[in-house]
Amino acid sequence: MTLPTLDARILQAKSVVVLTGAGVSAESNVPTFRGADGLWRRHRAEDLATPEAFGRDPRLVWEWYDWRRQLIATRRPNAAHEAIAALETYVPEFLLVTQNVDGLHRRAGSRRMAELHGSLWRVRCLAEETVTENLAVPLPSLPPHCACGAPLRPDVVWFGEALPTDAIRQAWDAAESCDVMLVVGTSALVQPAASLPMVGKAHGAYVVEVNLEATPLTRIADETHYGKAGEILPRLLGTLAQPRTPTPSP
Ligand code: BJW
Known about the structure:
Elements: H1 6-12, E1 15-20, H2 39-42, H3 45-48, H4 51-56, H5 58-73, H6 79-88, E2 93-98, H7 104-108, E3 113-115, E4 118-125, E5 131-133, E6 152-156, H8 165-177, E7 180-184, H9 196-202, E8 206-211, E9 223-226, H10 229-237
Helix pairs in contact: 6-10, 8-9
The structure holds ligand BJW.
The site of ligand BJW has 35 residues, from strand 8.
């Protein structure tokens, strides 16, 4: 008996979830966190990605985020982002759950998204808690300030902070009800995002992993494809990785 290919399985699915991590942006030359050239090899997360670090030295934290914003502003979505954006247009119920803060999925055209760890392109007022888009590159002064006078922080999720309630609820519900979950370019080490494939699996989803190497998720995945996401996804998804052309009217 031959197993259905992934594109056939997806065409039969009512609901599909794609979970992505930093590896999906690696081919856009955006550094990952834990790879050989990863951000956490050069910097300590405790110094840059915790509320305590920001409380101690907001300027230092902002210098790092401003550097990353400048770098990412010069980068483009790659074939993996594009394949995921195309896939969304073929599936009735679809959710892209991303841990990435770089905004490349949105630039590739993805719309039905839950951004679990926030966005580099939004800022939050420490006094009013208001969130606004901020695309200035570089930022004119560090740390930036709100019109009310209070400092702004990046609207991202640091270690020890709760994830945005709506995003994690949406992701959890989708994981519980999806037929297929595709997990791309995440080390699956950071909670609670790393639990989503287990939730999907426990509720009967067919779990497919795409990564350069094995992760803690590999043992529960139904299929693992080793290699670069930008090469593997277009191959695995076939025509579903191509933007859907409108059906011509008769
Ligand atoms: C390729 C590729 C190619 C490369 N193609 N693949 C339970 C147990 C243990 C610990 C905890 C727990 N629950 C909570 C914790 C603590 C903590 C945690 O998980 N720690 C672990 C590290 C031990 N979690 C938290 O603190 C979270 N908060 C929380 O749980 O709060 C609870 C709470 C509730 C109520 C009130 C208060 C609190 C928050 C986690 C926030 C994570 N933040 C960061 C920074 C975001 C902002 C920024 O970018 O600056 O998010 S850390 C960093 O890791 C970033 C990423 O989104 C995240 C995940 O990394 P990711 O995406 O997996 O990247 P990498 O680099 O690890 O992996 C890349 C992968 O790609 C690799 O596998 C490569 O092989 C692969 N790859 N090129 C395909 N071309």
